[in-house]
Design brief:
- By secondary structure, the protein is mainly α.
- It is built from eight helices and three strands.
- A three-stranded antiparallel β-sheet has the order 1-2-3, with no helix packed on it.
- A hairpin with a 4-residue loop joins strand 1 and strand 2.
- The longest helix has 20 residues.
- The two termini are 37 Å apart.
Length: 207
């Protein structure tokens, strides 16, 4: 797990699972008790209920292996949480791309946000990879961007070759945010990176 995933699971357990069954011996925890917990979470956040079911199952199986439980209480719950259907994003059609960049040119918002959007196009990186990019990951003279393994989904470092347009953009951006760790600093705390909300707000303003 990445540190982010670990904290997500830990907070979910502490907030929604431990208050109900956290002090019980594992042999006293029932599938019915687990189901009640999942129902409460599902009413608020269906996807978090899926994660909670996975976490409860992992704990239950560990308890079985370590002789602290006799059954996997999560097994009867495997079909109890409804997952939302996958909704794939609609790609821009070719005739929409010039309109998109025309709107981006007219966008009068935070320049690092505009730069992040252009860098997404130039590199085909994920939004998270761009928003969390640090200046020390870039070698502009060699035209490469190396994302360390700790930030990549597959836990392997990844090298992006940078086109001339990206180098030109990054040199301009360096004059704005180069004194901070991140390409796109958080406007409230420039020691942190911006969040996905800046992209959503930008796209909304662009129409």
């Amino acid at each position: 797990w990445t540190p982010r995933t670990y904290l997500q699971r830990k907070r979910l357990l502490e907030r929604d699972v431990f208050p109900s069954i956290g002090t019980l011996p594992m042999r006293d925890v029932t599938s019915a008790g687990g189901h009640a917990i999942l129902q409460r979470i599902e009413a608020r956040a269906p996807q978090m209920a899926v994660i909670a079911k996975q976490s409860i199952g992992a704990i239950s199986r560990l308890a079985m292996v370590t002789m602290r439980a006799d059954t996997d209480i999560a097994y009867p719950l495997r079909n109890m949480v409804r997952t939302a259907p996958v909704q794939h994003k609609s790609p821009l059609r070719p005739n929409e791309i010039p309109k998109f960049f025309a709107a981006l040119d007219q966008y009068a918002g935070y320049f690092p946000t505009k730069a992040a959007i252009r860098l997404l196009w130039f590199t085909l990186a994920r939004p998270t990879e761009v928003l969390e990019a640090r200046w020390d990951e870039f070698d502009l003279d060699s035209a490469i961007w190396i994302i360390p393994a700790g930030r990549m989904k597959m836990r392997r470092s990844h090298t992006f070759p940078l086109p001339a347009q990206a180098i030109e953009l990054l040199r301009v951006l360096q004059g704005i945010s180069g004194s901070f760790p991140y390409l796109v600093p958080n406007r409230n705390d420039p020691r942190r990176h911006a969040t996905h909300s800046v992209l959503i707000k930008a796209f909304g303003s662009m129409g």
